[in-house]
Design goal:
The complex is a heterodimer of chains A (246) and B (172). Chain A has 246 residues and is mainly alpha-helical. Chain A has 2 domains: 138 residues, no CATH class; 72 residues, no CATH class. A two-stranded antiparallel ribbon of chain A has the order 1-2. In chain A, β1 and β2 form a beta hairpin. The longest helix of chain A has 40 residues. Chain A is flat and about 70 Å long. By secondary structure, chain B is mainly alpha-helical. Chain B has one domain: Arp2/3 complex 21 kDa subunit ARPC3 (Orthogonal Bundle). Chain B contains 7 helices and 2 strands. In chain B, β1 and β2 form a beta hairpin. The radius of gyration of chain B is 16 Å and the shape is globular. The chains are: A mainly alpha (246), B mainly alpha (172). Chains A and B meet through α3, α4, α6 and α7 of A and α1, α2, α3 and α7 of B.
């Protein structure tokens, strides 16, 4: 079971400070909704695509594209149903297949979908999840929320391996020659084992001093002049790009 | 005392969210037509909202499915999943909360889950991601997933209540 999407790398985007990366992702995701020109519709998905290619390589880029490709194909397949009253571009025997307005609308949606998907995948595939939480703490995410997110990220792989063990042991109970695993007994045993952990985890939190007034983060993010430079570029580049391409 | 309760709430939500995420990631049937997948997500969401109440269901159902999308390579759907499955858990939990032994309310809760999942994904995808006609393709698969998931969630809830005696002590 895959419980992490981080891919190790030494690229510039891997080394980019998480606070600047979060700001860039957030800003880019908002700006992509306001692009209207044809140039913008082409250029906005191309930027994260190029960064993806440079940072993660061709195979990972293809994997990412493969995940979003069916939605794009579906969007264009249903193109004849879009804006039927618009200016006709493709017309066969009096039946309008594609209108200018319909084509523009679908291209805009496809561009937005590709740009959003790639920029978000780029964030979670080039940064460890604990660093993303530290970055969010920098933007004033409350302590309890950060703790909750860290615990969820810690428990997912643990419960995942527990589920695999339960599933494997339950599959041994099947009669010889049968494959798979009995779903209900497996998920019931798994759910009971997970629920049993709740009081123990709460007790452990108290033992570790949860609720103490003087809290200290286990690991913090360092602030250096590089951070301000990267934050500056994260803000200025998408805005200039948007003004030129919108 | 307040901090003690908060420790329990955080543990409850963290483990419930992880449970929802593991159910979503562990059993996954890809749907090539929509680039999505069918999972046991709804079974876990319904189970959590029946077992721990609507508020825990709202947060854990939403967060669990959003984390599953983030870790599973579908980050573009994370916010939509958070809203849809959070609302699904909230409504299912509110309907079943008052009379948890009544099978009729559980069936109504399951039907509401199907409506919320199908309608929610359709509405939010049309608003932010795709067109109405292409979002419509997903509706039968979403209905199947939430329908089967709701029934499994109900059965799971009944089985876990029997299997773990101290169940009532960890409610919100």
């Amino acid at each position: 079971m895959n419980t992490s999407s981080y891919i190790y790398g030494e690229s510039f985007y891997h080394k980019y400070d998480i606070r600047a990366k979060l700001f860039f992702t957030f800003l880019y995701s908002i700006l992509v909704f306001f692009v209207r020109s044809w140039y913008g519709l082409i250029a906005f998905p191309l930027i994260p695509f190029a960064v993806f290619l440079v940072s993660l390589g061709g195979i990972e880029t293809w994997r990412a594209i493969k995940r979003i490709l069916p939605v794009i194909i579906l969007l264009f397949l249903f193109l004849p149903l879009q804006d039927r009253g618009g200016n006709p571009i493709v017309e066969i025997n009096g039946f309008v297949f594609v209108t200018g307005e319909g084509l523009y609308r679908v291209c805009r949606l496809a561009s937005r979908f590709i740009a959003l998907s790639l920029i978000l995948m780029l964030l979670i595939e080039t940064e460890r999840s604990e660093n993303i939480i530290r970055g969010l703490r920098f933007y004033r995410m409350p302590y309890n929320v950060a703790l909750l997110f860290s615990m969820i990220l810690r428990f997912i792989p643990y419960l995942g391996s527990m589920f695999d063990e339960i599933r494997a042991s339950m599959s041994l109970r099947l009669t010889e020659g049968k494959r798979g695993f009995p779903i209900m007994p497996s998920i019931t045993a798994f759910a009971v084992a997970s629920v049993r952990m709740i009081p123990d985890t709460a007790a452990a939190l108290e033992e570790r001093g949860f609720g103490r007034k003087e809290r200290r983060d286990y690991k913090g993010l360092k602030t250096s002049p590089k951070l301000f430079t990267e934050l500056f570029f994260s803000a200025i580049l998408p805005i200039i790009f948007f003004i030129v391409m919108r | 005392m307040k901090e003690k309760k908060t420790a329990l709430h955080i543990s409850l939500i963290a483990l419930s969210s992880a449970l929802v995420a593991v159910f979503t990631i562990a059993v996954r049937i890809p749907v090539p037509a929509t680039a999505g997948y069918i999972s046991l997500c709804d079974a876990a969401v319904v189970f959590v909202s029946y077992a721990f109440g609507p508020f825990t269901g709202l947060i854990a159902g939403g967060l669990g499915s959003a984390f599953a999308d983030l870790l599973g390579g579908y980050p573009q759907f994370a916010v939509i999943s958070f809203a849809v499955h959070g609302l699904e858990a909230l409504l299912a939990g509110l309907i079943v909360k008052k009379n948890s032994q009544n099978i009729l309310t559980m069936i109504i809760g399951a039907l509401v889950s199907i409506v919320v999942v199908c309608g929610g994904y359709l509405l939010l995808e049309v608003l932010f991601i795709t067109t109405f006609s292409s979002a419509l393709v997903e509706v039968p698969m979403n209905a199947l997933q939430s329908g089967v998931g709701s029934v499994i969630g109900l059965l799971l809830y009944a089985a876990v209540v029997k299997g773990y005696r101290n169940f009532d002590s960890i409610k919100w």
